[in-house]
Design brief:
With 277 residues, the protein is of the alpha/beta class. The protein has helices at 21-37, 52-58, 76-81, 89-104, 122-130, 150-157, 159-165, 175-182, 191-196, 248-258; strands at residues 11-16, 41-48, 65-69, 112-117, 133-138, 206-207, 210-211, 216-219, 264-268, 271-275. The protein is built from ten helices and ten strands. Strand 9 (264-268) and strand 10 (271-275) form a beta hairpin. Helix 4 packs across helix 5 (122-130). The two termini are 33 Å apart. This is Glycosyltransferase family 28 N-terminal domain-containing protein.
Length: 277
């Protein structure tokens, strides 16, 4: 597909996903549904080249573009056991950055979007470097919690930001977001990559005189099965299983998340759920 196919008038979404087939499959389903539900969204998916065969079959007769990268990190243990070489993390991250930069270069930031799973957090830093919006996605509950010392170390390292995150600002990032899923973004493992992108050492949660807009973590789980705890961040909507051809209302709500539209009601079965954006 040529660059001409990506027009400025369309929202261009790049889905960056890492992991095994079980991790990548939900993102492929999400990409297919988004492309089918909204003709004005150009959707591409960026993931390991080793998934090429089954992804190519899945995306056949769809408008989704598959962008393979050379990483084989999901098979790293097996490759190392056989003595094979694997692509290093910084090289993978740089390749991911170059792919995103290439496919978003003709777009204005307001019409660009990077969606990523929680195994591809490099995409958050890439979105920051490109000045575009990013959305995290997860088909399951958060598999990990921050280390017991994380909050203390964060407060000591960034005291002013920590104090501000403790306060509630409508529509803005809070400590609940950091503690729920953003905490790995502050790991020192990203330091060299952020520097190579021309970014400060830590994710910039401030925009001028105020905190950045609250980041979205899109859960592919119905709230009837996993009721959303009150302690969770406000902007972590439960959108139902992406694999089930459920009410089209569900996909209209996902699109609302992507396009900054107002809250609406999601009907799943007989229970009305408020999806807060």
């Amino acid at each position: 597909m040529s660059d001409r196919d990506v027009t400025v008038g369309r929202l261009c979404a790049v889905i960056v996903v890492a992991g095994t087939r079980g991790d990548v499959s939900p993102a492929v389903l999400l990409a297919k549904r988004l492309a089918a539900a909204a003709g004005n969204i150009f959707v591409s998916i960026l993931t390991h080249a080793s998934h090429r065969d089954w992804i190519t079959r899945e995306l056949e007769a769809t408008a989704v573009l598959y962008l393979p990268w050379s990483s084989q990190q999901h098979a790293a243990a097996a490759l190392q056991a056989r003595g094979s070489s694997i692509t290093s993390e910084p090289e993978v991250w740089q390749e991911c950055f170059e792919s995103c930069q290439c496919w978003l270069r003709n777009q204005t930031p307001s019409r660009s979007l990077i969606i990523h799973n929680l195994f591809a957090l490099e995409a958050f830093h890439i979105a920051e470097a490109l000045g575009v919006r990013s959305i995290a996605m997860s088909p399951t509950l958060m598999p990990q919690h921050p280390p017991a010392s994380f909050q203390r170390r964060f407060e000591r390292r960034l005291p002013l930001l920590y104090a501000e995150l403790q306060q509630y600002h409508s529509g803005r990032v809070t400590w609940a977001d950091v503690e729920h899923w953003m905490w790995p973004l502050f790991s020192d493992r990203w330091l060299g990559f952020r520097i190579s992108l021309g970014l400060p050492p830590n994710p910039q949660l401030r925009m001028g005189s105020q905190l950045m807009p609250a980041p979205v973590l899109l859960y592919g789980i119905p709230e009837q099965i996993v009721p959303k705890p009150r302690s969770w961040p406000e902007h972590a909507p439960m959108c139902g299983f992406w694999a089930i051809p459920l009410a089209k209302v569900c996909w209209r709500n996902v699109l609302r998340v992507l396009t900054h539209r107002k809250p609406t009601i999601l009907l799943t079965g007989r229970d009305p759920l408020a999806l807060w954006l």
